[in-house]
Amino acid sequence: MLIIKKIKISYTEIIVFGTLVIILSGALLLSLPISSKSGIVTPFIDSLFTSASAFCVTGLIAYDTFTHWSLFGQLIILLLIQIGGLGFMTVITLFSMFLRRKIGLKERRLLMESANTLKIGGIVMLVKKIIIGTFLFESMGALILTLNFYPEMGFKEGLFYGIFHSVSAFCNAGFDLMGKYGQFSSLTAYSNNFVVNATVMTLIVSGGIGFVVWDDIISSHACFRKLQLHTKIVLVTTTALILASSLLFFVIEADHSMADMSMGERMLASVFQSVTPRTAGFNTINMNEMSEGGNLLTIILMIIGGSPGSTAGGIKTTTFITLLAGAWASAGQSSDISIFKRRLETDTLKKASAITVIYMSIALIAIILISTIQEFPLKEIMFEVFSALGTVGLSLGITPSLNALSKIIIALLMYGGKVGVLSIAAVVAEKKEPALLSRPHEKIIIG
């Protein structure tokens, strides 16, 4: 008698493989002749690259979104961005609620993992808030952008552009339809438009701080003293990064990418450039004209990224602060890590260290591989790799020139950045039975 062993799949594995299925499905749709403006089949590698970039809300593109893809193709990209921004488990739950199906414990655990929240209680209510909040933010953004695009585009095109760019900005995707003003031009045509810049930045930051943070802000009536530690760290770190990097870009890029701008335009561009690498992918300046210092600062911001449970990528703001606080505590010979008069658990530093080490290791391996496969300047390869892994979408122009193998590597980086490098490591790592006995201790020299 043949006995089939029941396969047990963890919640992390369901999310990792479920994401892969959606990306492949999107690639198949984008490769159809109806998806391109020319009516020809788009090579599957390029379709896969675009699908991965859209679902992983990255924004790196092999083809200009406006000039290559038809309306059908653009709608597929928009759908992938929206599902990727919300999280596919959130979308599945939405359909379940629509069909009045009961959401069981397994689905709730998956939602908890997908939303990156700490507790299972109230997870369905949180999902409802995520869906409603997303709709409100994107609707308001679409309305404001439509009113700005309407005078020069007309109502229909202005409305579509408003919706597309609002969804793309809130989901931190970085996809745009501004190829009508020049291929791969992003928002450079609107560099001096305060309303468009302010709206896009607000959407990026709103989507990048995380749904859990918004829920806490509303629950505490925006009283900072009543906020959870996680929310305080996210808000303070996000504000500090924007202010500090805005000032640095204003100074560093004065004689480079912002040389021909007025004082007001320079200030606006500096703030925008401090927001977009974490992790939206829009740009209002010519990225190829940036200084070496500006490029380095952008890479640092791409590595840090947004916040947990958000539409953004990177190692996350909380990871960054935990590492800094851990280093400060270690330098002071303290075993406790305290932030805002609250002590962090020891495992928090371990997880932050693991995420950062795995993240940087993957990035370095990818940089070595691509530099071996193709002859691009190292700076451009580093920029592309960290942009992909951080699901940012900014590029120094080498994306269309990547060969098939390099595109696969970049697509895998986007995939890893979306589902989380720690999740990938957990799935790939060999599962072993826990040892019954603890190993003996021995000291080593560090530093």
Automatic annotation (TrEMBL):
Q: Where in the cell is it found?
A: Cell membrane
Keyword line: Cell membrane, Ion transport, Membrane, Potassium, Potassium transport, Transmembrane, Transmembrane helix, Transport
Name the predominant localization: membrane
GO (cellular component) term, any one: plasma membrane
Q: Which residues form a coiled coil?
A: none
The record lists the membrane-crossing segments as: 14-32, 75-99, 120-147, 159-178, 190-213, 233-252, 296-315, 352-370, 382-402, 408-429
MF GO annotations: potassium:chloride symporter activity
Topologically, how does it sit relative to the membrane? Answer: Multi-pass membrane protein
Q: Does the keyword Transport apply?
A: yes
Q: Which residues form the signal peptide?
A: none
InterPro entries to which the protein is assigned, alphabetical: Cat_transpt (IPR003445), TrkH (IPR004772)
Q: Which Pfam families match?
A: TrkH (PF02386)
Q: Which domain of life is it from?
A: Bacteria
Stored NCBIfam families: 2a38 (TIGR00933)
Q: What is this protein called?
A: Trk family potassium uptake protein
